[in-house]
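# nightly structure sweep
# worker-07 picked up a monomer target from the shared queue
# config: single-sequence mode, recycle default, output format = structure tokens
# input follows
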Amino acid sequence: MAETISSDTEDYLDKLFAEYDALLAKRRLRKERPWTFDIIRVLWGYRVGSSGMRMVNLVSALWHIREPSGLNIPKAFTKTVQSTLNQHTAQSSVWKNHGAKPEDDLFYSPLGKRSGTWAVHRERALDWIKTHELPLP
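# output follows
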């Protein structure tokens, strides 16, 4: 004999499954849009001179592409961006001290360390994007 499920239970299960689906969608989006990828996208499109993009402009551009997409926006947004840059530049002691690979050296400061400017090594970025199976900029 089949048991019947009350409408309250059905509503609860529908809500639970919807929350689970939303969680899976967020995880999928985070995997498809890592910080490094979004930084590459912003710096790739920036072509003003050879002096790079100022950090304040980079942070603003990243906010404008990440926030509307529903991606996680940490309270320490600027620090998160800086941390990602440091993990992917040979100019940083963070990169050097953590045994990073040469192919992870994606970003550089055209005006030198502590100048607050950033640019992308295009060839390395292309290789990184292909390795991570992400769409080309």
